[in-house]
């Protein structure tokens, strides 16, 4: 089962790093205490401490293009992805190699404002669910999550929703969690092999 949550993201910043053929982008993967209605009567929000443990434990977290593990843009292990919790939400700064075809595509789409959203893939570890009998609504608060990846996405804009551009949070069930961990390990192995190859070439 996947729960997807839209989050409004409007803080993309982009800078060219000429000498290294890289581009830096900044934005928010998630925003805190910002309830989003997933369907009528069901709301969900992220607690401001939800990411504390998953950021502190030091495991590798990726920035992907469209949740695609074959298209990694940056990672915390390589130092190309920096995650920071502030009073607004989980902020990221990523250094993207513009020599990558899909990386160049992502950068151009951001510049053209065809990409205006971020999303995150997570496994919920703790939650609080509150039912309000007065207005017949449910509010689910994510208290603690295990974060695997953030993604930048193209979000379709329709005329009646163009003022509010939202992104989805992608919740991972136990079965999918195992599959994603395997994909993540393969990406990390490929990255390590490429680094070893580069080191050998420099010898």
TrEMBL record:
Domain of life: Bacteria
GO molecular function, one term: peptidase activity
Keywords, comma-separated and alphabetical: Hydrolase, Protease, Viral release from host cell
Species whose genome carries this gene: Ruminiclostridium cellobioparum subsp. termitidis CT1112
Name of protein: Phage prohead protease, HK97 family
GO biological process per UniProt: proteolysis
Residues of the Prohead serine protease domain: 13-169
Pfam families on file: Peptidase_S78
Keyword Hydrolase attributed: yes
């Amino acid at each position: 089962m996947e729960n997807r949550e839209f989050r409004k993201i409007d803080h993309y910043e982009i800078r060219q790093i000429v000498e290294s053929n890289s581009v830096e982008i900044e934005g928010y993967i998630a925003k805190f205490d910002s309830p989003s209605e997933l369907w009528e009567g069901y709301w969900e929000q992220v607690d401001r401490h939800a990411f504390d443990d998953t950021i502190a434990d030091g495991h590798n977290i990726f920035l992907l293009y469209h949740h695609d593990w074959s298209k990694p843009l940056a990672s915390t292990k390589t130092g190309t992805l920096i995650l920071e919790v502030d009073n607004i939400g989980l902020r990221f700064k990523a250094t993207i190699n513009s020599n990558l075809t899909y990386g160049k595509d992502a950068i151009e789409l951001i510049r053209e404002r065809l990409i205006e959203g971020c999303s995150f893939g997570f496994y919920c570890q703790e939650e609080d669910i509150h039912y309000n009998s007065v207005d017949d609504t449910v509010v689910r608060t994510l208290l603690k999550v295990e974060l695997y990846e953030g993604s930048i996405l193209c979000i379709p804009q329709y005329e009646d929703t163009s003022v509010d551009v939202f992104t989805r949070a992608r919740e991972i069930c136990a079965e999918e969690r195992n599959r994603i961990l395997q994909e993540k390990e393969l990406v990390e192995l490929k990255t390590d092999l490429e680094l070893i190859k580069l080191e050998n070439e420099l010898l």
